[in-house]
Write a structure and sequence with these properties.
488 residues; Arc Repressor Mutant, subunit A; 3-stranded antiparallel beta sheet; alpha/beta; binds pyridoxal-5'-phosphate; 8-stranded mixed beta sheet; Aspartate Aminotransferase, domain 1; 17 helices; single chain; Aspartate Aminotransferase, domain 2; globular; 3 domains; 43% helix
Length: 488
Amino acid sequence: MRFSAEQVAGMLLEPGARSGALHRQLSEGLGDLIDLGEIPPEATLPSERALAKALAVSRTTVVAAYQTLRHEGRLERRQGSGTRVTASGRPGDRETVSARALVGEHAGRSFVHGAPPTIDFSTAALPCLDLVPDVAASLTRTEYAALTQTHHGYQPRGLPALRERLAAMYTNDGVPTTPDQILVTSGAQQALELITHGCLQPGDNVVTEAPTYRGALEAFSLANCRIRSVPCDDHGMEVERLEDLAAIRPPRLIYVQSSVHNPTGSVLADDRRRRLARLAERHGTVVVDDTALVGTLIEGTPTVSIAGLTTSERVLTIGSMSKLFWSGLRLGWIRGPAQAIARLAQMKGMTDLGTSLVSQQIGVHLLDRLPDAQATRRRQLAEGLATLTGLLTDHLPAWTWQRPRGGASLWVRIPTDSVTSFAHVALRFGVAILPGTAFSPAGVPDDHTRLPYALPRGALVAGVQRLTRAWNAYTDGHRDLPAVGVRT
Ligand SMILES: Cc1ncc(COP(=O)(O)O)c(C=O)c1O
């Protein structure tokens, strides 16, 4: 197994905070990856020059780090075949390695860690709406007592009252739905897991957008599916490209985000969603329409979901309360044909016997406040978006983005061929960003990042200041910059 410099640089974004000389931090970071089996015995490492470039450090730093690891007996140099991990290295878990390599998972920390505290631009999680504690506190003892007396507590399909509410919501939105077409899940992530295990076999072909939600890529790659991708622009997935792909080999499942797309914030155009619905009917493909972000629409009103445009029995719609209300509720759902929902409910029962009924009871009441919640979220996100785009326009004019119609992040193009390398420099200046490659199956250019805007104004200002200093240092070609004092 041969690791490219970009792969190793991406993996080194994970191990966490270190201090001391750079070459020491690097040898420790690499040593941890070898011990964990992420870089397995006998794997070939990139050349010193290539790794130095990917990490934005000097070649001497990598030479010294490799030398330390050779002295420790973890690396060896073979004439003609470069630097390899010794055969006696820890065995590790090859499954984990392949899944990580496929997804390009990065946790946004580096072997070289900036002076703490780091501003975390690597997550686009949303803050909880004030409404949530208010509503949770308004539930009375009588109501909890009624809940505990009516149900023994195990409800794999979900609380009937919540399923009824969700079904009515779809029906009002033009997609007639009955409660037996709804399965409540522990967040949209569990919905994805259940669908993956219920609908896919190892080796099945799945098509996603590129970029797309990382959690979906992780679910499909851990199930050993083959992931192909279709680009998306500011009108969502390029469905014409999907038609070309499907004409060669129809996919078993198409994963799309039609309502608001993570990470680009685009909304799938009406003509494209109709073509996608027709394509699914023609090929009998399962379509998973992940609408988890629909509550984060900043511009316009939600359009009819794909399920409303087809009679196909193979469309599964995923929803979530995480983005509009709070992810800590762990409330999501799947809407689909009753038979498929019954099968998925069985699997859900085997997985966790059901989602918290207390959380679901709060969820029912939160849905009473839907218009309030949507207005508050829209205002917050519009402000954050204006702040971040204003700061980037002023301080980083070479960075470009497409204007999102919703969501909590900006999909930013950075004029470099290695955002992974720049991410290491950014960390030295106290801001964590994720390379855009983490949001796509392998093989896309490393020239994007996702910047969140659902953060307090102070964090956005300080984060962009740090990114600006990091970008200036990076474009000036500085190498081995010491961890810079962080001023906010
Ligand atoms: C598109 C998409 N789907 C699903 C999820 C998972 O959400 P949940 O918190 O409901 O599990 C996320 C979270 O970021 C997401 O962005």
